[in-house]
Every structure is written in structure tokens, then in C-alpha cells.
Amino acid sequence: MMANHLVKPDSRNCKRPREVEPEVLDSPLLSSLGKSDSPFFDYAGLFYKDEALEKELNDTSKEINLMFFAYAKILRQRAAVDASYIKEIDGLFKEANAIENFLIQKRELLRQRLTVIANTLHK
Question: Is this structure's pTM higher than 0.85?
Fold first, then answer.
């Protein structure tokens, strides 16, 4: 029973894709040429493919340029933030240096006063 049963091959399970027949373009040039065996048919198809490829490359180039401009803008913003952080840190270092100098002066004044007090007590 099973030996006589034939299974039709399913085209969806085929690993190799079917070759799609090229579509004929609706252009006056191609319709005037008539048959596809004309030598101009191949050149017109290549010309169309070149134009499509050129357009796709131009579009891709524009998208890449937009991405580069966006990236450059982000880098400029980050550089501006970094510059502001550097200015803020410089300000903090200057303030810390001023406080350090103030404390050194206070320590020296305190040392002088303690020396005066010690000299007074020793007399």
C-alpha cells in the first residue's frame, strides 16, 4: 500500500531558492526594442541596475553622513561637558590651594602665639 503512494516534492522545503525570472521594465526604450534577444536589452537592463545601485549607494552615503554628523555632535557635546568639568575642577583646586595657604598662615600665627606664651611663662 505505502509503496504505491507517491509524495510530491514540496517547493517550500527546497534549500535552493528558485530563480526568479527578470521582470521586463515598462519603459519606452525597452518596448521599442521588442524582443529580449536584442543586444540593447542587456545594456538597458544594466543601465537600470546601475541607476538603482547608484541611487541606493547615494541614499546609503547620506545615511552614513547623517550618522557621522550625529556622532560628531555627541562628541562635541561630551567635549563641552568635559571642558566644563575641567574648569570646575580647576576652580576647586584653586580654592583648595587658597584654603591650604590660609591654614598654613594660621598655623604659623598659632605657633608664634604659643612661642610668646611659652616665653612669658618661662620668665
Answer: no
Measured CA to CA in angstroms, residue 46 lies from 30, 39, 51, 80, 100 at distances of 12, 12, 9, 50, 78
- What average pLDDT values come out for the chain (123 residues) when binned by 10 residues? 48 52 47 49 63 91 97 96 96 97 98 95 87
Residue owning grid cell 541606493: 56
For the record, the C-alpha cell of 29 comes out as: 526604450
- What DSSP assignment string belongs to the chain? -GGGPPPPPPGGG-SSPPPPPPPPP--HHHHHH-STTSHHHHHHHHHHHHHHHHHHHHHHHHHHHHHHHHHHHHHHHHHHHHHHHHHHHHHHHHHHHHHHHHHHHHHHHHHHHHHHHHHHHH-
Identify residue 42 by its one-letter amino acid code.
D
d(CA 99, CA 93): 10
Phi, psi of 21 (to 5 degrees): -70, 135
